[in-house]
């Protein structure tokens, strides 16, 4: 308890709380179509491939919007960017309530729901911006636990859709966004870790090897989380013939694990290192997804395996974003948005793979196995790149480097460059694509 009090006192907790709430509600809006997919699919008689594509559209749209929002946040501030985004979400939900009535308009609504998916990098950077490096992992874990918004969506959207119609849920969701907007306006303060930089400096991480390595790993951890969370209501409903509301409740059990353990992932990574944590995560994801593919006849076993898989994915998300501010200490928002953008694009892969596997082979097995293969490939890549990471900007296992002692003249020496490049003592410059 004393350690947590020290953590709270080291930063501005109202901003962290506002960031969590902002991300939580945005995440719930982002996965609305996935939560209501059984209702929408029944309305339009969709086949398995159409279901997978419909669920993937908000994920892909949100991924593409993340980086522009991160750049905007660097210019107008993260708090202001969050307020602008939430206002646009309310307008988008109004469109859903009044105008969505066909499969094509559902796809268009999916693009608009992507606005909510853009919140990730801004929410994490805003929430952790007031905290010192040794607590960044925990602060980002708490802000990132806002992906528990998935729980809100799958728990409340199905019964509301059954009672009032799924289009009405868009209108009700618009009203809920007023709460995080009010909290953000009155409680949050723009963090001090902001520096005026050119657009070229902002996008520099796009041309760095580390940026792409982080992004590819995030395809598994976050892409797997958002892809599975969006598709599971459809999977449970179609595979086990449970009711639409029961499908949402079973999804809630799994996603709740991922959201809760994200904080633990950040906390553990602060101590053991993000690299060590990610290695265990990728192994566990591969094992549980493979087991899920072969346990398609047992609802209880499948649900437990999904809970374990989501716990691993949540811990992996916290672990990866413990490393991001160590690598890009002054451009965390933009780097996080770029990594989140590509990672979320990976989330669009899973629903489509599952839908196409069912459509062509009559089973979801090959959808699971395709993502298992990707997780193992990313594990192999991580074991290679971590050698360079621990020689340049991170301690063994991926922990934060300790500040060097002050020199006789009273000035502390710098262990890493401001943009997260290799230490001054490194003999070979890092960060550019070969």
What does this protein structure show overall?
By secondary structure, the chain is mainly alpha-helical. It has one domain: Growth Hormone, Chain: A (Up-down Bundle), CATH 1.20.1250. Helices cover 76% and strands 0% of the residues. The longest helix has 32 residues. The N and C termini lie far apart (47 Å). 58% of the residues are buried. The C terminus is likely disordered.
Runs in which pLDDT lies below 50 for 5 or more consecutive residues are: 406-434
The number of domains: 1
Radius of gyration, CA atoms, in whole angstroms? 21 Å
**Helix coverage percent of residues?**
over 70%
Q: How large is the count of helical segments?
A: 19
Query: Any idea of the CATH class?
Result: Mainly Alpha
Beta strands, count: 0
% residues in beta strands: under 5%
Termini separation (Å)?
47 Å
Q: How would a crystallographer describe the biggest sheet?
A: none
Elements, N to C (H/E): HHHHHHHHHHHHHHHHHHH
CATH homologous superfamily annotation: MFS general substrate transporter like domains
- As for the CATH topology, it is Growth Hormone, Chain: A
Task: Quickly describe the structure.
With 434 residues, the chain is mainly alpha-helical. 76% of the residues lie in helices and 0% in strands.
